[in-house]
Design brief:
Layout: H1 2-24, H2 50-61, E1 64-69, E2 72-77, H3 80-89, H4 101-107, H5 117-133, H6 139-158
Antiparallel strand pairs: 1-2
GO cellular component, one term: endoplasmic reticulum membrane
Cofactor: heme
Keywords: Endoplasmic reticulum, Heme, Iron, Membrane, Metal-binding, Microsome, Monooxygenase, Oxidoreductase, Signal
């Protein structure tokens, strides 16, 4: 009996915590359908034809809306005009990437592939400048690469 009561209390507290977390982030996100605790909006979407489901939701909530996949909120841009405005007119605000915890832990936010924001811009600028100094984009590097490839092929032929 005590185990059942403890299990019900834990389940209720998890549901309340889930509801509280979803409500606390609501002010920053665009409107969307009300998510269920833990499940989100997954029951409201047709998983086999998700584009049709998102089109229906865009008719109700507009071209920019929020859908929860589990407890993770996802902002959906539906339609050419919304995507064009986001990527062209507001390109700087939408230039960031999602956070991948495993890559974040391994690289500590550094590197070219998984970095983000100001760090990514600095790394990209440095990488392009360094590659140009080595001859990227110049005709001379092609000749050097071909010469090295010829030497490598000759060495491989000698070893049969």
């Amino acid at each position: 009996m005590d185990l059942a009561v403890a299990l019900v209390l834990c389940l209720c507290s998890l549901l309340l915590l889930s509801l509280w977390k979803q409500r606390s982030g609501k002010g920053k996100l665009p409107p969307g359908p009300t998510p269920l605790p833990i499940l989100g909006n997954i029951l409201q979407l047709d998983v086999k034809n998700i584009s049709k489901s998102l089109t229906k939701l865009s008719k109700v909530y507009g071209p920019v809306f929020t859908v929860y996949f589990g407890m993770k909120p996802t902002v959906v841009l539906h339609g050419y005009e919304a995507v064009k405005e986001a990527l062209i007119d507001l390109g700087e605000e939408f230039s960031g990437r999602g956070i991948l915890p495993l890559a974040e832990r391994a690289n500590r936010g550094n590197g070219i592939l998984f970095s983000n924001g100001k760090t990514w811009k600095e790394m990209r600028r440095f990488s392009l400048m360094t590659l140009r100094n080595f001859g990227m984009g110049k005709r001379s590097i092609e000749d050097r690469v071909q010469e090295e490839a010829r030497c490598l092929v000759e060495e491989l032929r000698k070893t049969n």
